[in-house]
Amino acid sequence: MGKSLNKVQLIGNVGKDPDVKTIGSGGRVAEFSLATSRAWNDAGGSKQEKTEWHRCVAWNARGGAGTGLADIIERYVHKGDKIFVEGSIEYRSWQDKDGQTKYMTEIRVRDLILLSGRSGGDSDFDSSRRAPARKAAVSADTDDDDFEDFPRALEDGDDNLPF
Question: What is the pLDDT of residue 50?
């Protein structure tokens, strides 16, 4: 059998505060929705936008109570935050109470980076070191080639990237 890959990377905004639960075995799971959007001009020149919603699920790894991914999400991720998630696509099916088969597609989150800045400053989590590099990488891939958000990128022509 040949090699295969199930990997997804998303950058978007959290739709509502994550729902974090403790299950019977003591494990914890965080569930949240993530919105990704794209914009384009149609043939008539009208601006169009499409938003996709992704159901994201993150589990704590075994051991390390209080430091797993679900715990981090519970503590630091909130509605409206811009985040980067990396994981895999999973499909589930089940029978509802009427015997109908239901299907669900989820993103099984394995890594997460907070891209939103903190307005409070009372947090002991500092995402500022990684966020600017990620924001710059995202903006460089847009269709409009507009670098006014990163004026220093054009100053010296040097490829001295911070990452």
Answer: 96
